[in-house]
Please model this.
Amino acid sequence: MIEFRQVSKTYPGSSNPVVKDLSFEVLEGEICVLVGPSGCGKTTSMRMVNRLIEITDGEILIDGEPNTSMSGTQLRRKIGYAIQQIGLFPHRTIAYNIGTVPNLLGWDKSRIKDRVNELLELVGLDADEYRDRYPAELSGGQQQRVGVARALAADPPIMLMDEPFGAVDPITRASLQDEFLRIQEDIKKTIVFVTHDIDEAIKIGNKIAILKQGGILAQYDTPENILSKPDSEFVSSFVGGDRVLKRLSLTRVGEMDLERANGGTDGLLRINEGLTVKDALSELIGSGHSRAVVEKDGENQLLTFEAIEDLMGGASGEPSNSGESSV
Amino acid sequence: MSNPALLLLQDVLEEPKLIDWEWLQENFWEDIVPALQGHIFLSVISVAVALVIALPVGVLSARYRKAYPPVTFVTGILYSIPSLALFAILISIPGVAIGPSPVIIALVAYSLLILIRNTVAGIDSVPPETIDAARGMGLTNRQILFRVELPLALPIIVAGIRIATVTIIGIATIGAYINGGGLGTLIFDGIGRQFPTMIIAGAVLATALAIIADLLLLALERYLRPWARARRT
Model:
């Protein structure tokens, strides 16, 4: 869907490239997260997709066509764009903001209006209440929702998102991420998502591209493999010392194979099957017991330390079992 | 007391009254209204011509930053020439007749600095992320200018227009010195005839005109900026 081929970017007057020989492919319907420390060229890489920044060397293919096969403005109208600072037009209503690209594409008014209402409901804002407001009347989290709705407006198959949930508090951020993943299950966009936060990358990404200083691709793989098989010192230190715990956060308790409890569950902690294994482990340790009860498929099952160890294929962080489930 | 000779003497000896209401009434349509109309004409034309020059120059200066210092240098010099001297210089140029046109040229020259500077400041005030988002959604440069930058620069541009207008209405009174017309004619005539009523009428009307113009522009700016009203709710 989107393919980077030996892409390099060097700014005029500078001898050091900010992105160097970047090659990877984002499959249709997948979220590819570009992550890395500041100065690693992740935003530059994203902005080269819709040519807000022009490539120095190499090419980016979209559906097999180089992205230079049409004008920059035409290209950008076909690609959703959402950024951390949101950049809503302060002098336009929410409806006008969301309708920007449909407007540019010449949709008729009633179609734009229907689309705006649909999108507001999709991102969890009451259309009648918010349609005619101005951005300054909305909270930061609401503005971020509008920013995402605006990027989705013309139903582009591809979306570019640069820390779209970066400017809000952690709680709002987590709920925006959850909602975003819920929406993505329905709309199946091909998304290039930039963040500096490895936890967000693990939560959001189908694939993660870890970049290091100078715009060099350190590793490109699934979150599971990045956590279990970091292929360099840089990646394992960037992922952090808690990568085993992070792997646990990829799986929910409900997805584990657990033994049935044969009576005697009184006094044991009851754990919701929707919890991540990481959170469940934390609660289990906190309960002071070695077992907890999970109610699943209408029966009581037992969550034990052994079950969690089995999930990890031994808690050492060695290559994982092929049958392992992931979100 | 009823001796006509004595009455006449009293009239002559008396200091001229500060405000001669009778004169105002008698000359309202003949002198005062045309002077006011002339003043409004001079000011409106000058601001309009100045805007036609300043907006594109300001937009270009904001885009091509290297052009901005020379632009402010030239308009700054124009702004600093004493108005009386500027009028004198202008009418000495062959082909420039005495009358309203040199006055308008001078008033335009005075307002350029303020208008260009505020246009640049207005465009600079547009949040970069708003422009980035606009470009990222596929707006062309022209669409970004007319749909995003200029509307958002509007409050600062209008603030410049208000200052320029008030300045112009003030300086325009001096234009009567070279037969430009306007309220200055009342003031200069009043000085010549040592008749304070005319001076006061000219000064009060010029001041009132400046205040009313300022308030009208303020109202216009509020009207054109509904999103700023919404912010307070």
Notes: The first helix of chain B runs from residue 4 to 13.
